[in-house]
Write a structure and sequence with these properties.
heterodimer; A: alpha+beta; SH3 type barrels; six-stranded antiparallel sheet; about 20% strand; elongated; B: alpha+beta; two-stranded antiparallel ribbon; 2 helices; membrane (chain A); transmembrane helix (chain A)
């Protein structure tokens, strides 16, 4: 057997571990949700593969009634030379059961990875134990996993205030965060917002003067400009900083008094 | 990457985006001293509210 064949056999044997790793660390934005090194990746594949085989081989043996020939498997990976240790007839007969075993072990690894991921997220273990980490830092904030589980359940959407420098002046964009993308360096590439309002950062508002009831700052309608369009995309390279607010839609009682009603921004002269 | 958004929020946004627009408009105002005005969805009235009272979060650098 040549080295390439041995490597192929080893790869097939590691398949449950590979599936476990990708199922556990699945991210919608990038292939690798966390920036792990080669050694971490290898450990993250080898250990689950070993554990899956430790569980599955006794089950397979008892189910099939045949012992698992580990020595023959070893000789497939490491050629035994010419001393006749490799039983080719046995290998030929075991080919179908072996692939069936790998298939079932891989399915088992997939299920276990999903279950472990669910438990880790549910009990917030990934924030306590680094080796269990599923989300990168940005994922944690934007998926609400930076919050406690109790608070996370309340979140209806994420609202952001983004400071962007355009032509020497700083603009503040406010809107609901729809999505974001990460680049290969695991940093944000761009943010996609909707229901966006924009104003110059210098045009900060002030509280109403209690005595006169007037505002010393220009009216909200004059400071804020509602961005047209459905989605507004901000390249993250132009962002100086941003603020994240987790918002919930709270149901209020029918008899509860209506809060103050204000006309639409851009049409009123109200203070803000 | 999908951002956390509840089914309730998505449903309102798909069925009548103007209601979300209205809530956000008032939310912008709320940050400047105004309260949110409720919108009615299937007989229930909703306002926007921060999940946690705004404690600054240390963002990753």
């Amino acid at each position: 057997m040549n080295i390439a064949f041995g490597a192929l056999v080893l790869l097939i044997a590691l398949l449950p571990g590979i599936v476990f790793r990708f199922s556990y660390l699945k991210s919608n934005s990038i292939r690798k949700s966390i920036n792990s090194g080669l050694l971490s990746e290898a450990i993250f594949i080898l250990i689950p593969a070993l554990l899956v085989h430790l569980v599955c081989t006794p089950l397979a043996e008892s189910w099939s009634g045949r012992p698992f020939e580990f020595d023959q498997f070893f000789y497939l990976i490491v050629p035994p030379g010419k001393d006749g240790l490799l039983d080719l007839q046995l290998i030929e007969n075991s080919l179908s059961p072996f692939f069936l075993y790998i298939l079932l072990a891989t399915c088992f690894a997939f299920g276990v990875a999903k279950a472990v991921r669910y438990v880790v997220v549910y009990y917030d273990l990934d924030s306590r134990f680094k080796f269990l980490r599923i989300y990168n830092e940005w994922d944690r904030y934007f998926t609400g996993h930076a919050l406690s589980q109790k608070d996370r359940k309340k979140v209806d959407f994420v609202y952001v205030d983004v400071v962007v420098t355009i032509g020497g002046s700083r603009m503040l964009y406010k809107g609901t965060l729809d999505s974001y993308t990460l680049n290969d360096a695991h940093s944000i590439d761009q943010l996609t917002l909707s229901q966006v309002y924009r104003r110059r950062l210098d045009d900060d508002g002030f509280e109403l003067d209690r005595a006169t009831g007037e505002s010393p700052s220009p009216a909200t309608s004059k400071r804020y400009y509602q961005m047209p369009g459905n989605y507004f995309i901000i390249p993250f390279a132009s962002v100086q900083n941003f603020n994240i607010t987790y918002i919930m839609l709270e149901e209020i009682a029918e008899e509860e008094a209506l809060p103050e009603t204000v006309p639409a921004v851009g049409t009123d002269a109200g203070a803000g | 990457m999908t951002v956390v958004q509840s089914d309730k929020f998505r449903k309102i946004k798909e069925e009548d985006p103007t209601k979300i627009d209205k809530l956000i408009r008032h939310w912008v105002r709320r940050g400047l001293g105004f309260s949110a005005e409720p919108v009615e969805v299937e007989g229930k009235r909703y306002i926007l509210k921060p999940v946690i009272s705004a404690e600054p979060i240390d963002l990753p650098r």
